[in-house]
Design a protein that fits this description.
Length: 479
């Protein structure tokens, strides 16, 4: 469906309501009431019974080193310091930081691995709390992607295309499924970064944009300091009653414009004004942690009360999930260890280990994990060979690596306590049960009750979907 088609349909439908007995007032009210339901012009969803009602995506910006954290490869220790075989590298493309580097010595893991739980999953000593919940997790160790740089790789992961401009996954789901919350957005985004600001990762708005979908489906970003959402608070001298009166008048004016022009962005404006009004009450309640038990706060770690920290955002993710938010996109930067692997990796792991595990435990004890899909991972992995000089241990690093990496998933219809897929003996290439980014997206859609091939939106003369023309559901990971 093109935007002009959408305009004409909206015009016809809204013109009909505008000419009815209820008039403009009913039109504004109807737009308000429909703001959190699936779009009436979207395909009828779900296509089948969903296993998950909501998604929490713990996106680790910068790319965690799979060979140091989850994908144990003894060969790296055995060949440490020697040149990685050309037969393994095979003319592969890397970032400009190692693209011209002729010496590519194998770098053994800088952590210690041990097996955890009945599943025997290998997890780094840097992630002890995640190791404790290994039997709740499904590790996918054969992920691979197409991009070697952060922004296009994250864009590809979240929108299905390397170029900015497509709808993010959360926008697709809120467009198709609506929200279970009347007082909070269907799609919420939170960002955090390492306290050391060790890398310059930028959080671009298009990572959670709505693309060619109406803009009411874009993610609402909660800020890391001050008011979680700008301009929610009334100005001095403005009472809530006066605000309501103003919004009613503004809603009537916007309803006239909507009736006359049928522009879906006008409907967005009406819906978002009303959502903002409701969020004046819901957001303060959401962020009030005074009733959280001490043992819960302790489980998330010492940073849990610091607004904008990863721990705080993980707790907010749980609180958003229990209030019916459809998609929570939590992005944490600091994993880009090109020259500081020996120092920053452990710091980064300490920041995310306890909060990530606490989120899984917290959801489970509240009965939410069974229908909440949690995903943890980066946009790609890190090279099994060294970036830099092998004799300069203080500046050891690993470059971007799209050819094999690890993500883990939990809850929401995912089989727990398993490992799916394998990389080769160097952790370089995915070699068994390979999972492409589009396969991961198709699987997430499937768990939400959506056939990714049927869920499309017509724009500029073609049918678009999150998975483009690719993607297969990874059935072995489904419970």
């Amino acid at each position: 469906m093109t935007p002009s088609d959408l305009h004409r349909l909206n015009l016809t439908r809204r013109a009909l309501f505008g000419q009815g007995a209820a008039g403009i007032g009913s039109l504004a009210l109807g737009s308000l009431m429909a703001s959190q339901r699936p779009d009436p012009l979207a395909p009828a969803l779900p296509h089948f019974a969903p296993k998950a009602k909501r998604v929490i995506y713990l996106l680790q910006n910068g790319a965690p080193s799979h060979v140091d954290l989850f994908d144990h490869k003894p060969m790296l220790k055995q060949m440490h310091g020697t040149q990685i075989p050309d037969s393994v590298v095979g003319g592969k493309r890397f970032s400009t930081m190692t693209g011209g580097q002729t010496a590519r010595p194998v770098l053994g893991e800088i952590t210690q691995f041990s097996r955890h739980g009945q599943s025997g999953a290998t997890v780094s000593s840097f992630l002890p709390r995640i190791g404790e919940i290994a039997d709740e997790l499904c590790f996918i160790k054969s992920m691979h992607t197409t991009q070697v740089n952060h922004a296009p790789a994250i864009t590809f992961l979240m929108t299905g295309a390397e170029q900015a401009g497509r709808p993010a996954m959360g926008a697709w789901l809120s467009y198709g499924l609506g929200s279970d919350s009347e007082d909070l957005p269907a799609f919420v985004v939170m960002t955090s970064r390492d306290k050391e600001a060790s890398c310059g990762q930028i959080f671009y708005d298009f990572y959670w944009g709505s693309g060619f979908l109406p803009s009411k489906y874009q993610g609402v970003k909660f800020r890391g300091s001050g008011d979680p959402v700008l301009y929610l608070s009334n100005p001095d001298g403005m009472s809530r009653e006066l605000r309501r009166t103003m919004l009613d008048g503004l809603g009537e004016l916007n309803a006239i414009k909507l009736r006359d022009h049928g522009d879906p962005e006008t409907a967005t404006r009406i819906a978002q004004y009303e959502m903002a009004y409701r969020m004046q009450s819901s957001v303060p309640e959401l962020t009030d942690l005074s009733n959280e038990p001490k043992h819960i706060l302790d489980m998330y770690g010492p940073d849990v009360l610091r607004q904008g920290s990863y721990a705080y955002n993980c707790l907010m993710a749980r609180r958003l999930a229990e209030r019916g938010v459809r998609f929570v996109q939590l992005m944490h930067a600091g994993w880009d260890q090109h020259r500081n692997l020996n120092t920053q990796l452990k710091i980064q792991c300490t920041d995310v280990d306890a909060p990530s595990a606490a989120l899984i435990k917290d959801l489970k004890q509240r009965g939410l994990l069974e229908d909440t899909l949690v995903i943890w991972g980066g946009e790609f992995g890190r090279t099994p060979f060294l970036q830099g000089d092998i004799t300069n241990t203080k500046q050891w690093g690993r470059d971007h690596h799209p050819y094999a990496f690890t993500v883990w998933m939990a809850g929401g219809g995912i089989k727990s306590g398993i490992t799916h897929g394998e990389s080769d003996e160097f952790g370089f290439n995915a070699v068994k049960d390979k999972v492409h980014i589009h396969d991961l997206q198709a699987t997430i859609m499937h768990l939400m009750g959506i056939d990714h091939e049927r869920f499309t939106f017509r724009f500029q003369g073609r049918q678009f979907r999150l998975t483009d023309i690719h993607g297969e559901v990874v059935k072995p990971v489904l419970a």
